[in-house]
Write a sequence for this structure.
């Protein structure tokens, strides 16, 4: 082998390391270009990976931004416990903004119906958090492989004063040059793991030995079957509905959102290697377990235009 | 569509070449994959969506619920069969009008590589979108309809590929099923292409006759075209040599962020965060900081506090120096005996990306590596007609999607290399100071004469 080929092999970068490098670059760019960024932290695996990437970008210093949790009040208790544990272990600041507070103040309304999702009520809550803390940039863990509208969203995604996304009026994004210039009142959502797939996230968690909530691993749980999905049951308002039978199943969650809109999957996968095997063999997309996307073909696009992540 | 076999789960790695489509990932294999970013240029008419649909479908990157959603949408629109474009067209306006407006990014993987596709619309009014997708691509796929041969669009796409310096080009001569699988037709197209492409600097061109519809030469070698001895498209994508595309010779490190812990534990730490643009940096290397010209040695290289001995592109690392010299965002580290050009009068090719034309004499903000400066457009040397490639020297402005050579003067020196040498230090974007919009993409030629 020639010397040049030798050195190329020596300096070879795997795809995970290339994605990591891109994400670190994006995070530092935001830290440098904005006054008051925050990292949206849900307790889900994608936001946990973002925290890891922030450590890579800024350690041994502290993060130049706080974590922000939009608390719907519909969280899995396990996810909240994990959130607090993680924040404690990394020693960073966490801001919690509650949907319930906005509903109490009359600034957000609960969806009608007996079993409301709080997906929509998150939007005014998030916008209120931006207003309250004057955030000008928010990191989100969304990935382009999740959904069709996201496949076309920029890494730096601009929102107007109302938090709205205009898909036809996006800034061109070239090379690794990001234009973060904005006016007062405008803010951006930044997606450092845009180019990661679900598989990449799991592989990275395995490679970096990142701790994640137990919800992702196979466990016994009380669920009901609802519209063909296994829905977790818990304390009110997450109890079984009329005519539903509570059964114990061995399940895990591929995605962790609200208890009111996240379905479990039958799975014996109890460790990361098994999860990776399962993801490789999966026949349904991750967002298939999100009941809120099923409402209409353009459900996500519509929510994003209103200010959703 | 070929049948999509249920993959085995688990961690065994199959070496059977017939089952290598994105299925059997062993943990080791997955962690050892590299990344190829490629661009697809063409329109729906060329079968681009079908081709992408097939790559995604055969690599099991489309899930059942996504297929179902596309089927439901096709039926409700009254289509006879499922429209594959619905799998790839994301925005409602695009679905309603059956066109692609914006760059969409798609992902698939085989046990050898992970692929990021920048799926770009083909028509001339979307040149800026194609340039956007091309800026990060290592390889471009250009689709040609075998029945129509090399057309104006082919020339335009090839030109942009060469303008953006995409190192590898694959010319997909598609719809061979509608051209009787004719070698003569293929050879003619190949000759036509080579003739005009000789004017461009494209180093690596591969031609593949195929039918995305039937799958011939997409994943598997075609039986209908036994006269073709080359690889299938997927085989080529998996094996094209990309490691050599990175410049390992000319170290350039734009400083993006200074990592400075507050607190006693690390109070001596002062790391310069950035992404290696080109070349290799090693602990102990002598470096010079621009613009100050101060020299020092690399004391340590780390990622998030984990040390390593060297950094190569495109790694994002933090570099500490032996000496305490004043360095901030926008500065650049390089080697004392290998420095970029430093200057304020620069010539560049620019692609204009907004409705308001570029005006000579107007001031803009530019972003170049981690640096920001203001500039004035001193001169528009010529506009390039992208249909004919003729230079229009009497041009007075650049409109949306037009390309031209400009001379600018910046408010402070930039540390740059010609784009042909380094895509990172040789590119900048132009930002309108009123709208804050990104309005131009520029590739540096060199110092203004």
């Amino acid at each position: 082998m020639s010397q040049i080929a030798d050195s190329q092999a020596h300096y070879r970068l795997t795809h995970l390391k290339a994605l990591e490098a891109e994400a670190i670059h994006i995070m530092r760019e935001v830290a440098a270009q904005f006054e008051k960024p925050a990292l949206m932290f849900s307790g889900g695996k994608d936001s946990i990976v973002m925290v890891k990437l922030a450590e890579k970008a800024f350690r041994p210093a502290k993060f130049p931004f706080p974590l922000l949790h939009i608390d719907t009040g519909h969280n899995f208790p396990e996810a909240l416990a994990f959130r607090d544990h993680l924040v404690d272990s990394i020693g960073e600041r966490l801001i919690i903004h509650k949907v319930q507070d906005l509903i109490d103040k009359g600034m957000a309304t609960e969806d009608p119906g007996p079993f409301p999702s709080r997906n929509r009520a998150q939007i005014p809550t998030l916008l209120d958090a931006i207003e309250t803390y004057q955030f000008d940039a928010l990191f989100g863990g969304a990935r382009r492989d999740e959904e069709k509208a996201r496949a076309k969203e920029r890494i730096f995604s601009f929102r107007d004063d109302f938090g709205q996304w205009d898909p036809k009026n996006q800034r061109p994004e070239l090379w690794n040059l990001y234009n973060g210039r904005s006016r007062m009142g405008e803010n951006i959502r930044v997606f450092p793991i845009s180019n990661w797939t679900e598989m990449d996230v799991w592989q990275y968690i395995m490679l970096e030995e990142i701790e994640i909530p137990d919800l992702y691993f196979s466990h016994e749980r009380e669920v009901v079957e609802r519209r063909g999905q296994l829905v977790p049951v818990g304390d009110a308002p997450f109890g079984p509905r009329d005519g539903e039978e509570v059964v114990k199943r061995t399940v895990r969650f591929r995605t962790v959102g609200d208890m009111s809109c996240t379905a479990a999957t039958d799975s014996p996968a109890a460790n990361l290697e098994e999860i990776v095997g399962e993801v490789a063999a999966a026949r349904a997309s991750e967002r298939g377990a999100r009941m809120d996307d099923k409402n209409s073909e353009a459900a996500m696009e519509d929510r994003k235009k209103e200010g959703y992540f | 569509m070929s049948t999509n076999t249920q993959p085995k789960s688990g961690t065994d790695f199959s070496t059977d070449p017939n089952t290598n489509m994105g299925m059997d990932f062993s943990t080791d294999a997955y962690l050892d994959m590299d990344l190829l970013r490629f661009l697809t240029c063409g329109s729906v008419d060329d079968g681009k969506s079908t081709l992408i649909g097939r790559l995604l479908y055969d690599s099991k990157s489309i899930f059942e619920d996504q297929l179902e959603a596309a089927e439901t949408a096709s039926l409700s629109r009254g289509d006879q069969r499922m429209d594959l474009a619905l799998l790839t067209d994301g925005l409602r306006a695009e679905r309603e009008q059956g066109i692609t407006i914006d760059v969409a990014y798609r992902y698939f993987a085989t046990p050898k590589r992970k692929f990021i596709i920048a799926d770009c619309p083909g028509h001339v009014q979307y040149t800026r979108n194609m340039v956007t997708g091309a800026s990060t691509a290592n390889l471009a796929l250009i689709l040609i309809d075998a029945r129509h041969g090399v057309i104006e669009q082919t020339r335009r796409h090839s030109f942009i590929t060469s303008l953006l310096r995409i190192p590898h080009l694959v010319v997909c001569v598609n719809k061979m099923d509608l051209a009787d699988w004719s070698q003569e037709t293929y050879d003619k197209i190949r000759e036509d292409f080579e003739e005009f492409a000789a004017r461009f600097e494209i180093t690596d061109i591969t031609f593949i006759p195929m039918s995305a519809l039937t799958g011939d030469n997409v994943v598997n070698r075609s039986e209908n075209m036994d006269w073709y001895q080359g690889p299938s498209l997927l085989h080529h994508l998996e094996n094209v040599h990309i490691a050599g595309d990175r410049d390992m010779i000319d170290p350039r490190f734009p400083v993006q962020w200074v990592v400075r812990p507050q607190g006693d534990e690390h109070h001596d730490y002062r790391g310069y965060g950035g992404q290696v643009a080109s070349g290799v940096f090693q602990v102990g290397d002598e470096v010079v900081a621009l613009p100050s010209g101060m020299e020092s040695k690399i004391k340590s290289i780390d990622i998030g506090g984990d040390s390593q001995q060297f950094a190569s592109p495109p790694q994002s690392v933090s570099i500490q120096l032996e000496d305490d010299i004043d360095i901030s965002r926008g500065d650049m580290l390089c080697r004392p005996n290998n420095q970029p050009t430093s200057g304020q009068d620069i010539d560049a090719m620019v692609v204009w990306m907004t409705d308001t034309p570029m005006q000579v004499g107007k001031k803009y903000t530019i972003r170049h590596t981690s640096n920001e400066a203001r500039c004035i457009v001193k001169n528009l040397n010529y506009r390039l007609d992208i249909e004919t490639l003729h230079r229009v020297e009497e041009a007075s402005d650049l409109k949306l999607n037009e390309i031209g050579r400009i001379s600018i003067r910046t408010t402070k020196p930039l540390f740059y290399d010609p784009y042909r040498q380094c895509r990172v230090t040789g590119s900048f974007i132009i930002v309108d100071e009123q709208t804050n919009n990104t309005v131009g993409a520029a590739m540096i030629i060199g110092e203004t004469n």
